[in-house]
Design goal:
InterPro entries: ABC_trans_aux. α3 packs across α4. The chain has a single domain, classed as 3-Layer(aba) Sandwich (Rossmann fold). The protein has 187 residues and is α/β, with parallel strands linked by helices.
């Protein structure tokens, strides 16, 4: 009977040890861009971006000098990473090119002219101070008419200013903008 009375006290003590103010949530916020490319896409539906497993976790992953990927439960993404990157990428492609790119499912009554699919194979904050991004994107006609498919691989790095989570987040925003430029230019 005495043990049963101690359990609530132990739980209360454990709850007092955790400090929710220590947990930081970071949104993916690419830098503001201006229209700088012609609209080569028109209207396009962007499917949810595919990410490697370590990049889909709520905790922000980073690589340590021993090559391991680590994370800290006090540094979290503010939203689901795949959803966040998808929405930010659609917004950036639209802003850079003037195209109408919206995430799947397509919300407008007129169907899109194209579909975009992005498969990110690596989006790794490396121990070398750079965010390494690689993968492939596909742009295809949305209708039954074939042809006009675009398949492009990408592989680039974005510097990370410091080892702080906010610097990783800023680099990821810059990486999304770089990918948006590549997709908008179809190169």
């Amino acid at each position: 009977m005495t043990m049963l009375r101690l359990i609530p006290l132990c739980l209360l003590a454990l709850a007092a040890c955790s400090n929710p103010e220590k947990v930081a949530r970071y949104p993916i916020e690419p830098p503001a861009v201006k229209k700088s490319l012609p609209n080569r896409i028109g209207t396009a539906e962007l499917r949810e971006v595919s990410l490697p497993q370590y990049a889909t976790a709520q905790e922000i992953a980073y690589q340590t000098p021993d090559g391991a990927l680590r994370s800290n439960p006090d540094n979290l993404w503010a939203d689901d990473p795949a959803r966040s990157i998808t929405l930010a990428l659609a917004r950036q492609i639209s802003a850079i090119s003037g195209a109408t790119v919206l995430s799947d499912p397509w919300p407008l009554s007129d169907p899109p002219r194209r579909r975009i699919e992005v498969r990110i194979e690596q989006i790794l904050p490396g121990a070398d101070g750079a965010l390494h991004v690689s993968g492939v994107y596909f742009v295809s006609p949305a209708g039954l008419n074939g042809g006009g498919d675009v398949v492009r691989r990408f592989d680039y790095s974005v510097p990370i200013a410091t080892g702080e989570p906010s610097a990783i987040v800023a680099a990821q925003g810059a990486a999304v903008t770089e990918l948006a430029k590549r997709i908008a230019a179809l190169n």
